[in-house]
Write a structure and sequence with these properties.
single chain, 1 helix, elongated
Length: 49
Amino acid sequence: MVSPDGMGDPGSDPARLRDRLSAAYVIALAPRVVREVGGMATRGVRRRN
């Protein structure tokens, strides 16, 4: 798992990028995806216990 902090600041705001099919957009979006999926996994484990 990659920490969103490890992705760095440059290009970290996908809202600033217009081309949503570009690699830069996907890379900028990656920390958000990691954070959201991690949150869902954490909540799922908490509900089981």
